[in-house]
Amino acid sequence: MDDSDEALMARVARGDERAFQLLARRHLPATIGLARRVLGNSADAEDVAQEALMRVWTYAPRWRPLALFRTWLTRIVVNLCLDRKRRAPWVELEAAGDIVDPAPGAGEKAESDERDRIVGAAIDKLPPRQRSAIVLTYTEGMSNAEVAEILDTSVSAVETLLVRGKQNLRRALGDMIDKDK
Amino acid sequence: MTNEQFDHLLGSALKRRAEMPVDDDAINRVLSRIAGPLPKQKQPLWRLPAVLVDWQFAPAWPRMAALACCAALGFGIGIAGLDRPCPSPIR
After folding, report:
1. Which CATH number fits domain A1-93: 3.40.50.720, 1.10.10.10, 1.10.1740.10, 3.40.1110.10?
2. Cα angle: A42, vertex A72, A79; to 5 degrees
3. List of chain A residues whose C-beta atoms are within 8 Å of the C-beta of residue B26
4. Which burial class, exposed, middle or buried, applies to A79 when counting CB atoms under 10 A from its CB (0-12, 13-18, 19+)?
5. I need a labelling partner for B62 at 20 to 30 A (CA). Which of A110, A141, B3, B49 fits?
6. Residues 32-51, chain B: which have Cβ within 8 Å of A?
7. Does residue A28 sit at the B interface (CB-CB below 8 Å)?
8. Is A164 in contact with A171 (CB distance < 8 Å)?
9. B39-89: per-residue pLDDT in tens?
10. Across the interface, do A138 and B31 touch by the CB < 8 Å criterion?
11. B28: closest CA of chain A, how far (Å)
């Protein structure tokens, strides 16, 4: 039996709950991960993932395979994250940082973790659309055209979002960059 | 730091962030929340015109026959003049 996303969506559109569970199980880790990176909050990310999957179920009969299922799901997740950000203030992810590992080489790892934490905190402070563009480009590995489709904007607007986002990050990470020079 | 170096720093930091695994508990929590009775699905809006276009008359022959009988009866009543009021005897 064809168990591609598109084939499963065709079954979901006919009200097949088993196909929906299969599709949800397949995409849930990526969905929660993306929502967590855009929102910077694990609890909210779970809520968004749940809501996104419920939308997949509800609107499945209206879905037409013009784009990949993954692109459609990513668009739902990003839109839900942006809606949530408009309603609630930002909450930083792992503000307390990680526990330092006493193992050999732990010093380097701790330094790298600290750097990641600072970069993460700087990204969390970006405006929602700049942040979404950066997360989709750098962590999801999407092209500007795909990001434009997901954010419902033009490719040039995505390029502008990325340039401004990186400028803001450079400004926010100024001290860390200077230290590395 | 050049733009390329900054891109590399950003890319590697974000990639490491992306590699942080999503714990199974979170996945199971969401799966259990969507396992319950699912809401009604929204049907596509383009289904209605499709239904009208694909309308089949085949099973409607009895109805067509009834319509034809009504038309014939009406024609007969009209020709026979049964629909006209009787002339009043007082004029």
Report:
1. 1.10.1740.10
2. 50
3. 32, 42, 45-46
4. middle
5. B49
6. 33-35, 38-45
7. yes
8. no
9. 888 887 776 666 666 656 555 778 888 999 999 999 999 998 887 877 776
10. no
11. 9
pTM given for the model: 0.69
Q: Per residue in A112-121, pLDDT tens?
A: 777 778 888 8
Maximum alpha-carbon separation in chain B: 115
Place of tokens 């405006």: A127
Q: What is the ipTM of this complex?
A: 0.72
Whether residue B75 lies within 8 A of chain A, CB to CB, comes out as no
CA distances from A29 to A70, A117, B23 (A): 13, 21, 8
Instruction: List the domain boundaries for chain A.
Output: 1-93, 100-181
Task: Give the contacts of A48 (CB within 8 A, at least 6 positions apart).
Answer: A35, A39, A77, A80, A81, A84
Collect all residues with Cβ–Cβ distance below 8 Å to B11 and sequence separation of at least 6: A138
For B1, the enclosing helix (H) or strand (E) is: none
